[in-house]
Description:
The chain is α+β, with helices and mostly antiparallel strands. It folds into 2 domains: 1-36; 52-160, PH-domain like, CATH 2.30.29.30. Helix content is 27%, strand content 38%. β7 (115-116) and β8 (119-120) form a beta hairpin. The chain is elongated and about 70 Å long.
Amino acid sequence: MNGYGLLGAFWGLVALALLTLAIRAWMMRTKSQSLILPTPASISDSHSGRFLADQHYVASVLTDSPLERVTAHGLGLRGRCDIAVDSTGIALKRKGESDFFIPAGSIASLELSNTALGRAVEPDGLTLINWHLGDTAITTVIRFPRAAERNAFMNQSSILK
Length: 161
């Protein structure tokens, strides 16, 4: 094996070690948050809201630390979701992850923003749902690809106040 082969093998091992450390850190954060945060409520069969299909679930973060994802219960992973609101709360059906329900009494506020998790989008491109999971303040970030659906969601959400 020549010098380049050894150098390539060395950097490959360094990359593998860093990847292993990142995965272990994510798993440890998930485990520690799971011990503190209760499991979010499930969507009841009686939820009567009309689901707006194929929205972007960006993540849930700690409200007081907006760069820190809530990894417990799969809340920190991006993906697609269907979202609905009725007088009892907000239901999120996520593709490939657990669905969850935010009871109306847990919701502190809904707002539009252009920044979340250190990234920026067009003005009012993100919908922030500020709520409490147990005693912890959480912000769930949703991106509606179409402004008409975002506006419909915000109008429907007025029944929560």
